[in-house]
Amino acid sequence: MTSIMDDIYDAYGTFEELPLLTDAIQRWDADCLDQLPDYMKFFYKTMLDLYEELEGAMTKQGKSYRFQYAKDTFKQLSESYFVESKWYQEKYVPTVEEYMRNALLTSGYIILTITSFIGMEDSVTPEIFSWTFSNPKIVAASSVVCRLMDDIASHKFEQERGHVPSAVECYMRQHGVSEEEACSELKKQVQNAWKDINYEMIFSETTKVIPMPVLRRSLNLTRVIEFLYKDGDDQYTHVGKVTKDGVTSLLIDPVSVSP
């Protein structure tokens, strides 16, 4: 659902249509269907149906709070996508700092993490969801990895297609440097973010209050992002042999580990 919503805001929705979709998602009401163009109606109805099913399942388990956090992060993501659409429409190039404040949301990492917790064991309490939604250091650092590796790998393709400036263009504009220099600096920021993640996993007080399965889930999701965008190759948008071989080795032909 998030990938489809991303494409609507990035490539298919007009600037006149996108406020309607953003408003509809914030209202979360089937009555909003009438205000949307046909192709958005299908997306919006599917979204409502999917989350209604999720709400029912979580309510039966006495975990309705999990649905609410999933819903809230979806709303948050749509608002951040709309900010980017306004920047693109206005041909506005934000500073790197301004861009990153919004881009840590558009990276989708927070909604990915929150959603991945929904089916976990009872140790994932309302406090864990609240902690994650507050964007703690390990989540923020993981969002940096996700956003910057994505931007480094995909910015050329996206700019040719027509897209809001990525971190690469913002850095080039703000600091007056070449694309190569901007990418080099952003890669350093990715490395620093990984240092923060490793610290949070090993040395931080976080490990005393947050269950290790939760921290490990956050780490593993970041490792997936690293895999998809490593070496400046966007294997998420343009799935190729690297991704296929990775999925095969993990799920179809895994290496057996003897006890």
Automatic annotation (TrEMBL):
One of its GO terms (biological process) is terpenoid biosynthetic process. SUPFAM superfamilies: Terpenoid synthases. Residues 1-196 form the Terpene synthase metal-binding domain. It comes from the Eukaryota. It holds the Pfam family Terpene_synth_C. Keywords: Metal-binding. GO terms for molecular function: magnesium ion binding; terpene synthase activity. The keyword Metal-binding applies. PANTHER family: (+)-DELTA-CADINENE SYNTHASE (PTHR31225:SF240), OS04G0344100 PROTEIN-RELATED (PTHR31225). This is Sesquiterpene synthase.
